Amino acid sequence: MIKMVLKRLGQTILSLVVVATIIFFMFRLMPGDPTAAVVDPSISTEAREAMIQRLGLDQPLYQQYFSFLSDAVRGDLGRSFYYRRPVMEVIGDKVINTLMLMLSAMLIAYVIGILVGAYLAWKRGSKKEATLISIALTFRSAPTFWVGMLFIMFFSFRLGWFPHSGMRSSGYEAANTFEVFFSLDFLRHLFLPAVVAGLYFLATPLLMMRNTMLEVLGEDFIEMCHAKGLKEKVILYRHAARNALLPVVTTGALFLGQAIGGQVLIEYVFGWPGLGTEIIQAAQRHDYPLAQASFLLIALMVMIMNFLADLLYSYLDPRITYK
Amino acid sequence: MTEPVVENLEEVKVERKDVKGGSLASTFKLFKDVLKRDKMAMFGVVVLIFFILVAAFAPLIAPYDPYEMNRTEDGAIARLEPPSAQHWFGTTNLGRDVFSQVVMGSRIALLVGFLAAFLVTFIGTNVGLIAGYYGGAIDNFLMRVVDIMYALPFIPFVIILVALLDPSIWNIILAISLLTWRTVARIIRSQVLSVANRPFIKAAKVAGASDLRIMYKYIAPNIIPIALLEMAFMVSWAILAEASVSFIGFGDPDVISWGQILHTSFLTGAIRTAWWWVIPPGVAIVLVLVAIFFTARAFEEIVNPRLRRR
User: Fold this and answer.
1) Where are the domains of chain A?
2) Which of residues 264-293 of B touch A (CB under 8 A)?
3) Cα gap A52→A36, rounded to integer Å
4) Model ipTM?
5) Tally of helices (H runs) and strands (E runs) in chain A
6) What's A94-316's CATH class?
């Protein structure tokens, strides 16, 4: 087990280095002035020259590459042009915002998905099943940003129930860190983006749960439950659902990794101050150090999630091993 | 438990022969049979053909120039007019006709969708063929590359690439093709592995056929149905990617796409009032994606006959 963990960890670190390399060369080998990726092109020529020298941009590419890697290991990813602060300072707390939104969305998707998925297995072949599955698949295939726009249009502007953008009302000052994330104001802002993201994720746990439930419901112990005269609801949720849960939960971790990349658009539509909004704004402002760092951080989160998912898998199901 | 499995196997064999030996004509006939049974697939094909026709004749269908500033009868610019007989989907804040924009947008969606999907499938199929056929170190290397591609989050990657290059549909197509071949390569490789073990491939080897000949003449025809199926899914993936990138504002400024229409309406705050500017392009995207999904699913039944008896 330990050997497997180490091996998988090694693979993760290796792919992280490769991704960092790809990103480094993507930013340096672009058409146009390569220093524009690191030094703000809008400052005066002398200041630029001084900056280029100080950052070592007159050195050969491979030396720059190694100093980029060693800086990145120490958590130094350069300075943002726009904020004029170190990049890590800018995006440090954005990571938490992104995770917060994503976990809420996953929670919504998994609670609804598991409950409804179990119900669908019970109602197999009915009209209700077909309708609910179609709804889940529609939300999966519709562009998330468009669904977000529709929700804003209806719930924020037509009904005025929820704020349309941001993470907290302007002028709102949290008394302490706890209140930042557990105040009514925050939850009201969180609701719409979390629901839209959750609806997008919904199809995965829903269909997974339905399919594993169908298998479980065919097993002998369910017949035994019927013979004992238990109520249908009790059989469904107490006995069958419990046994169908495992694969659904384990795919959750794997899915979490993919979800981070896709959440970018939802953050943008709802003005959620997370990594996704940051990477879009940085790219629009040609703030390359910030865009580069945001991308690396998103990729890192994806990799960590995949790593954890693999570990969870092999822990829960020892038959899965890695060569 | 054993009986249905055996039955299934036999069915697979029969269908395989059908697809392989019977050439395109029999595949087409099978497809027609599926369409007759499956109403959803029929719906998908009809909607898809509808959109292809709209894209082909877009300039004839669109009643106005999509950039034209339309005016009301008293000469004022027709800003944010709700749908009417003149403007079926209303007008934008600059008095442009939303219906004409949506009609013209179908061209970009289908162009990007099919072109990117073709490139992705082309790259992925070749990589999968080479990896699966040669095996060993080449296979290992290519599959590690695929693993690393999987570590790159798709939308952020496309955003960065398009922002670094100039925003244009060609760069969007490039960004999509660079990354998404990973999925196709994996699927094709596993298919090649199973085909390469069949007796007729061994016979070809013994007969002295070259590697290239075996790969492209004998193995490739057997994986083309699956490659086409993947391509169908890639079309919808590419359409969605183009819409997303344009929505963020990295779309080609010289063309009208559905994502771009939504981008403008979002930036101008039209979602406060002008629902007619937001709903039509989105519905168009959803319709095309759903149509492709249903068509592809019907096609999947032919390629993978095990799905057929549900």
Assistant:
1) 2-73, 94-316
2) 266, 271-273, 275, 278-279, 281-282, 285-286, 289-290, 293
3) 10
4) 0.80
5) 15, 0
6) mainly alpha
